[in-house]
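Reader question, answered in our methods column.
A reader sent in the components of a multi-part assembly and asked whether the whole thing could be modeled at once rather than chain by chain. We filled in our standard form and ran it. Here is what they sent:
COMPLEX SIZE: two components
ENTRIES:
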Amino acid sequence: MAKLFDVQAVFSHLSEILAYLPVTLELAVISMLIAVILGLILAVIKINHVPVLTAAVNVFVSVIRGTPIIVQLYITYFGIPMVLKYISTRNGTEFQSGNVPGIFCAIVALSVNESAYIAEIFRGALQSVGTGQIEAANALGMTYFQALRRIILPETLTVALPGLGNSFIGLIKGTSLAFTCAVVEITAQGKIIGGRTYRYFEVYVSLALIYWVVTIVVEQLVKLLERKNEIPENAALVTERVCEAKPGQRI
Amino acid sequence: MIEITNLKKKFRDNIVLDGINMKIQKGDVVGIIGPSGTGKSTLLRCINQLEQPEQGKIQMDGKEIDLSRKNKKEILELRKNTGMVFQKFNLFEKKTALENVMEGLLVVQKKSREDAKKAAQEQLERVGMAAWANHYPRHLSGGQQQRVAIARALAMKPSLLLLDEPTSALDPELVGEVLETIKKVAEEGFTMLLVSHEMNFIRHVSNRVIFLDGGKIVEDGTPRQVFEHPVNQRTVEFFTKMNLMNQPEYVI
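And here is the structure of the entire assembly that came back:
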């Protein structure tokens, strides 16, 4: 009888699975970028109580947070071609709606899903910026968007960074559901290998290892970003910069 | 000349400013005093529309602006011509002292980086903070932060400088350096509206003193007139109380 658990099988298919890691990362990174921009817009609408739009954002966030991501993936996968077909027939064009790539649908679903959570992270972070600094920016004659870009956002990012890192890690793992949109990424590839070799368990273990390592790398990157974004603790270090800039200057 | 007409502001039922009219000559340093909650700060904040009054107009550099209306373009123009120094400094925390002063020059006045840097360094020198240019606000004392905030306001070359209790959040030890800076600025001929509880300072630095009570100007004149010969009963009471506090605890 064959071995119950084949340790070797965990590692022997690693390179086959890792060949699809770029797909996983592509899904995660592109979705994250879109989600951050979308989430920020949603949050700005919400904290400024823009009439009508705020209500729409509230409904959007509620729907997205209230439905499972796998359902959202199915809805976009079947929905986007339907919408395109409708537009195409209305305008009398011959668009092949069946040709929409699955990865496009997956990115739409993942980024829309993540944006709802990121909007809440940004909302909290935006509200944490002291009104004093915003008033100071206004008093200088800055418009809201100038103040947002120059003063509010840099501080918002500092506060939001840990939450965004957390979201990104969640998103990486969320990409494992992209096979519902016929996208072959590492999890889908693992299933394929499992189906071929019947070593499902071993393949899943190696998948777990890959996700874990990727997550550790991301965690470290976020930590690095956080440290870079901090105000230098040591005032003396800053003073040294003055010395370098202007030798002989009295400190 | 700057003219404010019929400025009215209320928070719900609480009338804070009840029809303020005043004319400010160029180069005037106007000290605004009065009991707490009489709208001294609100008056300043209405002038650059950080607070929107129900009614009121301001005429400045020959242009009249209705403060009660939200006209973004006019308000931005007004804010570009007024500088504000806050009670709690309100420096941009993620920017160094130099970057704080440069910010308005870069973003609002659209100056080049070098020009802005040069101008900002000049302003920091003016308030005696040049050596701290690369320090972040959290590494500066309250007095130092306020001096940087003054430099930030001055860098914009405003026609009117509004100072909202610039020393009341400071340790007694640090008040001196800030007052010294303000005095220097006043002597350079800036038009200023100064709200403060430092009576002696107001008396020395300003050439006109306004006493606000219940949202109205009840006393308006030279420091000598207002401090030594107040005509209004409320003003007399206020100074009497102040003087009582200044008396020695024991007299032998």
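What stands out: Residues 2 and 56 of chain B are 13 Å apart (CA to CA). The mean pLDDT of chain B is 91.
Send us your own complexes using the same form.
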